[in-house]
Amino acid sequence: MNQQKVVISGFGCCTPLGDHYAAIEEALRDGRSGVRKIAKYDTATFRSHFAGIPESGNFPTQGERQRFSHDEFYTRKAMENLLASVSFDPVAIGEHRIGCFLGVDEPVVDIQQTVNLAYDLNKVGGQFTNLDPALEKHFRVQDFIRYDPTNALRSVHKFVPFKGPASVHLGLCSASLQAIGIGFQAVRQGRVDAAIVGGISAKVTPEHYIGLESVDIIATDERLDPMGLSRPFDTRRSGYLPAEGAVLFLVESLDSCLKAGREPLMELVGFGTSTNASHIVKPAPDSAEMKLAMVRALSNAGLRARDIGMVNAHGTSTILNDFHESAAICTVLGEQVPVTANKSLHGHMIAAAGAMETLNTLISLRSGFIPGTINLESRDPDCMVNVSPFTQQRSVDYCLKNSFGMGGLAASMIFKRIG
Question: Does the structure show a pLDDT above 60 at 180?
Answer without folding.
Answer: yes
